[in-house]
Design brief:
Number of strands: 5
Oligomer: single chain
Radius of gyration: 14 Å
Strand order of the largest sheet: 1-2-3
Structural class: alpha+beta
Strand content: 15-25%
Length: 97
C-alpha cells in the first residue's frame, strides 16, 4: 500500500488523493490548481488516477514496471495513446453507460 507523500520542497506529490471521498478530492485538486497558478509552482504528481492527471498535469509520462513508455502533452498522451500500456491503462478506467 502506498502512503501519501509530500516531500520537503512541497512539489513532489505521490497519490495525494488515495482513499479520500469525492468532495475532499475535488477540494484538494482545486487547491493544487490554485497553488500552482498563484505561486507559479510545478508539481510532479505520481498517480494512478487518470482523472486527476487530466485536471492537474500539462505533461504526462507513463511508466510500465518503472520504465518510461510514453510521454508528452497530457491531452495527446491520454487522448491518442501510442503505447499499448497507455491504452490498457485508459481502458481500465470505469465509465458510466
Amino acid at each position: 500500500m502506498h502512503d501519501t507523500h509530500v516531500l520537503r520542497d512541497g512539489r513532489i506529490v505521490a497519490e495525494p488523493l488515495r482513499g479520500l471521498g469525492l468532495g475532499t478530492r475535488v477540494r484538494i485538486v482545486d487547491l493544487l490548481v490554485s497553488l500552482c497558478a498563484e505561486r507559479d509552482l510545478t508539481i510532479l504528481l505520481v498517480s494512478h488516477d487518470l482523472g486527476v492527471v487530466t485536471e492537474l498535469c500539462a505533461h504526462t509520462a507513463v511508466l510500465e514496471h518503472g520504465r518510461l513508455v510514453e510521454q508528452g502533452n497530457t491531452d495527446a498522451v491520454l487522448g491518442a495513446p501510442a503505447h499499448p500500456y497507455t491504452r490498457k491503462l485508459l481502458s481500465s478506467v470505469p465509465r458510466l453507460p
